[in-house]
Amino acid sequence: MPRQETPLYRRGKYWLGWDRKVDGSLRSPNLTIFWYDPAAGRVRSASSGTAQEDLAVLALDRKYLADTDEAPAFCHACGQPLAQAQAYLLTDAIADYRLEWGDARASADTIEGRLKHVLDFLDVEEARGSEGRFGIATSCAAACTSVFVHAFRAWSRKQPVVWRNKAGLVTKSKDRSPAATEAAIAQLVAVLNHAVNADPPRSDKRPTYKPLPPSQVQRTRRTRIGIEELAKIVAYAAEPNKRRGSLHRFIVASICTIARPGAVVEISVTPERNQWWPGSPTIDLNPNGRTQNKKRRPLLPVLPLLAEWLDAERVEYDALPVEERIGRGWLVNYYGRPVKSIDRAWDAMLVDLGFPTGREWKPYVLRHSLATLARNRGAEKWDLEGFMGHRASSQTEVYAVGEFPTVVSALASIISDIERLAPGSLHRNATGASRAPLAPREAKMPG
């Protein structure tokens, strides 16, 4: 690599760059990891296996962590475990956290976004030069202080949340909420604690602060929709020949489960998910292999309406050749493909129906509204908490599955009223169930 070329990324003795010949042409289309080998007396190299810089950085981080002579958790002189927050960079702690924990989580994209916000702060501070108190050389010790979090919080709240297209151009932006800032701080706390909890530990200091509690930074959602609005929404989604199948499925499943949008789009009839099987009186919103977290996904009774949809989906799944079943079986799908989000279809519906389009009218309004309707129709507090996953199951409930009778009764009443106002719209055959078999891949609904 030419001496004058600045490394794209450096950590310890390793640096990342392009491997060039004497004439400047590339030896490889992939980025290369370089390091000096004192025993051989020369620079050695290894391919990162990719031309994408972010993936190449990840490859370098893996190599660095695998090198016990380089990892900051070890003393270079004696090789003994060493934990010094003053010597362990925050950027390295973030990289290690993502590599060893965050990137393997279901919420990896969310974790990445929150930590990128922290890294953006370090870049801004670095660009300020002598005027910046923090930068890419910030250690974990400095990041654990209240001075750091106060500076980050003040900066973060002035930064808009932006959406970019594939070309990297900003297509949408909005003011950052205090809750979004505190979510990034909570992720930062997790990073710093991960450094201390590593085996052997890489840091000897924990943060002196905590994120502000939700009650201080989250706005209370006041918007609720009633039976009439629900009927209009269902009728819109069920309108034939409009390519609204994913939206229709999402709305019906939400009504039957009062689940969070993320849980609804992950309902599957496949045996390996172990959420439901034909004839099962219950559905487990927490699929096989998913660890429960603060947003608990409960085991719920299957309402007759939901059973109708699940049975039909399983019949279609079983009818597929075995080799074509991979990626299929999702209740909320678009021509058989899994759907991550119905936000675009939902936003288009709000416009078409003349409903407000603000933050409180996002798909989450279904969960809030249905909970309110159920409570006002006699659902008992204990039943509603368990049905919505707001209460952790007791050991007794591991053996005695809750039936939540008052919630089931309230939902049956809600469904009956929607059926009266929009006859047939809740049923699957209102829009036709046949779907063309396409290659499995994730898709988003068109607007």
Explain what the structure shows.
- This is Phage integrase family protein.
- GO terms for molecular function: DNA binding.
- Residues 197-218 are annotated as: Disordered.
- The chain is α+β, with helices and mostly antiparallel strands.
- The chain folds into 3 domains: 9-66, no CATH class; 90-217, no CATH class; 227-289 and 296-392 and 399-430, Orthogonal Bundle (hpI Integrase, Chain A).
- Helix content is 41%, strand content 9%.
- It has 16 helices and 10 strands.
- The chain has helices spanning 53-66, 90-100, 108-127, 140-143, 146-156, 178-197, 214-217, 227-238, 245-257, 261-264, 304-319, 343-353, 364-376, 381-388, 395-399, 405-421; strands spanning 9-11, 14-17, 32-37, 42-47, 161-164, 170-174, 282-284, 299-301, 333-334, 337-338.
- β3 (32-37) and β4 (42-47) form a beta hairpin.
- The longest helix has 20 residues, at 108-127.
- The two termini are 48 Å apart.
- Residues 431-447 have low confidence and may be disordered.
